[in-house]
């Protein structure tokens, strides 16, 4: 519902009120900025020497930020692949004809969605990988990050797959069965392809979660963007600018991904396809407007459909 | 599992009590901030909309870990803004502030998505039978919007409870850091993980069930 329906065309009194609110808003904005700038100025964080290295010194990017960026993207990319496989396997498992398979997959998925990602990472790293020689000391942090991200986001994707299939019109499956396909053939060649298309925007939204949560790797000493920004801050004694640049990089990456998700969603709904919202996914790092519980709560995402 | 519980039982309970406290105060703050931001985002004043949108876009896209680390290592140590003389207290208060500010962005989106579930025809119908703006809001839009935002708000709360673990990077009182300590002392065993995981399942599962049934019961039939 757009604001234009909610509000009348403003009359003279409303226009005065809006002008007043605009002034208040501008003052608020300026006040916030002024406090931030003042604090940073008195702490000498606005000196040119604090910011210069980002433009003049190549090693800032080569030895720190790009390394961190590569670390973040590597962890995120591996996790996305693994989580996709995990999600597909367990999502199909939850749709299985065999009740025990459904239960086991259901318990696994619900469990990993309820446990904080950081808890999984810390246990995987300190509890398993550093105490066994399964991974070398260099790769153990990466393995821990990927483990945590895969288990949690894989479970969310499994829910997406399931709710995507449930969201399809019943006739799709029935038509397949009536022309003599087996249930698994129906799932594979009729339901899954449509479900996967419908869940694409929610899937990209989940990638934002993965990218953002890879920063949790900081807690298990994984060399990702945040870790390297901290090192950069100590090396050039410009901690605050380093964090700010790190935040900007994260915001840019995530904002671009979110925009991509919106774009895909628009395209799909223009083609008249249903779109699946993230089911109760808010969990690790809340994302997207989503529904709770996951049980067949499938809805077209209300905010993006321009209703 | 038995010896861990007998040795660390009180510590574990204390850690989860901290988790609950962080969730409660953080959640309260997030609700306030999110509601204000949501009002700003649907308001007819462009500057207000800009402030609301910027807030949501900045904090929704920044990792919580980064905000936590920045609050203590950056804002307290370098900019000198501390919330308490005591180092531990300062970290805990910053953790609550960060949790509130971060999740406020998601609360805003949850409330806004509730407003968005109300079909435009409802507002048009209300106006066409002669209700004023205030009446339209009070009698038609907000009751439906509130019902529509229950489910997403529940998801935000559950996420918030789990995200209190991220405070572990600056606070050593809550569950995730205690688990790390126990693992360092006792060696890693699945029993330790199971205890802490179960703690979170106990905290979040009833909430999930409760919010789902509440949102179903109150759902607007369309």
From TrEMBL, chain A:
Keywords for the protein's UniProt record, in alphabetical order: Cell membrane, Membrane, Transmembrane, Transmembrane helix, Transport
| Annotated membrane topology | Multi-pass membrane protein
An example molecular function term from Gene Ontology annotations: transmembrane transporter activity
Its chief place of residence is membrane
Its source organism is Knoellia koreensis
Q: Family assignment? A: Belongs to the binding-protein-dependent transport system permease family.
InterPro entries xrefs: AA_ABC_transptr_permease_3TM (IPR010065), ArtM/GltK/GlnP/TcyL/YhdX-like (IPR043429), MetI-like (IPR000515), MetI-like_sf (IPR035906)
- Limits of the ABC transmembrane type-1 domain: 69-261
Q: Which residues cross the membrane?
A: 20-41, 69-91, 103-128, 198-220, 240-264
Q: Which Pfam families match?
A: BPD_transp_1
Q: What is this protein called?
A: Amino acid ABC transporter permease
Q: Where in the cell is it found?
A: Cell membrane
Give the record's GO biological process terms.
Answer: amino acid transport
UniProtKB/TrEMBL annotation, chain B:
Does the keyword section mention Transmembrane helix? yes
**At the top level of its lineage, which domain of life is listed?**
Bacteria
- Transmembrane ranges, per UniProt, are 15-40, 61-79, 91-111, 150-170, 190-214
Name of one Pfam family that matches: BPD_transp_1
Q: Which GO terms describe its biological process?
A: amino acid transport
Matching PROSITE patterns: ABC_TM1 (PS50928)
GO molecular function per UniProt: transmembrane transporter activity
GO cellular-component term (any): ATP-binding cassette (ABC) transporter complex
Membrane topology label: Multi-pass membrane protein
InterPro entries given in the database record: AA_ABC_transptr_permease_3TM, ArtM/GltK/GlnP/TcyL/YhdX-like, MetI-like, MetI-like_sf
List where in the cell it is found: Cell membrane
Q: Which UniProt keywords apply?
A: Amino-acid transport, Cell membrane, Membrane, Transmembrane, Transmembrane helix, Transport
- Can you give the residue ranges of the ABC transmembrane type-1 domain? 16-211
Q: What SUPFAM superfamilies does the record tag this protein with?
A: MetI-like
Family the UniProt entry places it in: Belongs to the binding-protein-dependent transport system permease family. HisMQ subfamily.
Q: Which PANTHER family match?
A: AMINO-ACID ABC TRANSPORTER PERMEASE PROTEIN YHDX-RELATED, MEMBRANE COMPONENT OF AMINO ACID ABC TRANSPORTER
This chain belongs to the protein called Amino acid ABC transporter permease
Species this protein is from: Knoellia koreensis
């Amino acid at each position: 519902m757009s604001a234009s329906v909610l509000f009348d065309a403003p009359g003279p009194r409303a226009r005065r009120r809006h002008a007043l609110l605009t002034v208040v808003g501008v003052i608020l904005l300026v006040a916030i900025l002024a406090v931030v700038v003042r604090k940073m100025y008195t702490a000498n964080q606005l000196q040119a020497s604090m910011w210069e290295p980002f433009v003049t010194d190549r090693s800032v990017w080569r030895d720190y930020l790009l390394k961190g960026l590569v670390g973040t993207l590597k962890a995120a990319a591996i996790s996305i692949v693994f989580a996709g496989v995990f999600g597909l396997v367990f999502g199909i498992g939850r749709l299985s004809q065999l009740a025990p398979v459904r239960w086991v997959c259901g318990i696994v998925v619900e469990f990993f969605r309820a446990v904080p990602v950081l808890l999984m990472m810390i246990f995987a790293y300190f509890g398993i990988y550093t105490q066994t020689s399964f991974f070398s000391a260099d790769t153990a942090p990466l393995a821990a990050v990927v483990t945590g991200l895969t288990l949690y986001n894989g479970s969310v994707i499994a829910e997406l797959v399931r709710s995507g299939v449930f969201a399809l019109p019943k006739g799709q499956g029935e038509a397949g069965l009536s022309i003599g396909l087996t249930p698994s053939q129906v799932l594979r060649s009729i339901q899954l392809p449509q479900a996967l298309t419908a869940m694409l925007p929610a899937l990209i939204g989940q990638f934002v979660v993965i990218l953002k949560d890879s920063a949790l790797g900081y807690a298990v000493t994984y060399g990702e963007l945040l870790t390297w920004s901290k090192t950069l801050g100590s090396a050039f004694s410009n901690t605050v600018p380093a964090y700010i640049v790190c935040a900007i990089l994260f915001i840019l990456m995530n904002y671009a991904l979110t925009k991509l998700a919106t774009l895909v969603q628009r395209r799909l709904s223009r083609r008249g396809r249903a779109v699946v919202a993230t089911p109760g996914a808010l969990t690790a790092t809340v994302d997207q407007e989503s529904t709770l519980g996951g049980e067949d709560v499938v809805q077209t995402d209300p905010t993006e459909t321009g209703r | 599992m038995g010896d861990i519980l007998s040795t660390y039982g009180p510590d574990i309970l204390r850690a989860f009590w901290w988790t609950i406290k962080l969730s409660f105060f953080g959640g309260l703050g997030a609700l306030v901030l999110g509601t204000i931001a949501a009002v700003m985002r649907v308001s007819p004043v462009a500057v207000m909309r800009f402030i609301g949108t910027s807030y949501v876009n900045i904090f929704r896209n920044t990792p919580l870990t980064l905000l936590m680390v920045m609050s203590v290592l950056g804002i307290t140590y370098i900019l000198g803004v501390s919330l308490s003389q005591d180092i531990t207290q300062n970290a805990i208060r910053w953790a609550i502030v960060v949790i509130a500010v971060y999740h406020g962005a998601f609360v805003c989106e949850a409330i806004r998505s509730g407003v968005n579930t109300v079909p435009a025809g409802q507002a048009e119908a209300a106006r066409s039978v002669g209700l004023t703006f205030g009446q339209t809001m009070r009698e038609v839009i907000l009751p439906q919007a509130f019902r529509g935002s229950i489910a997403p708000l529940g998801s935000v709360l559950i996420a918030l409870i789990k995200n209190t673990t991220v405070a572990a990077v600056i606070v050593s009182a809550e569950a995730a850091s205690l688990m790390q300590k126990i693992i360092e002392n006792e060696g890693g065993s699945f029993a330790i993980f199971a205890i802490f995981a179960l703690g979170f399942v106990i905290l979040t599962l009833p909430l999930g069930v409760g919010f789902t049934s509440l949102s179903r019961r109150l759902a607007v039939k369309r």
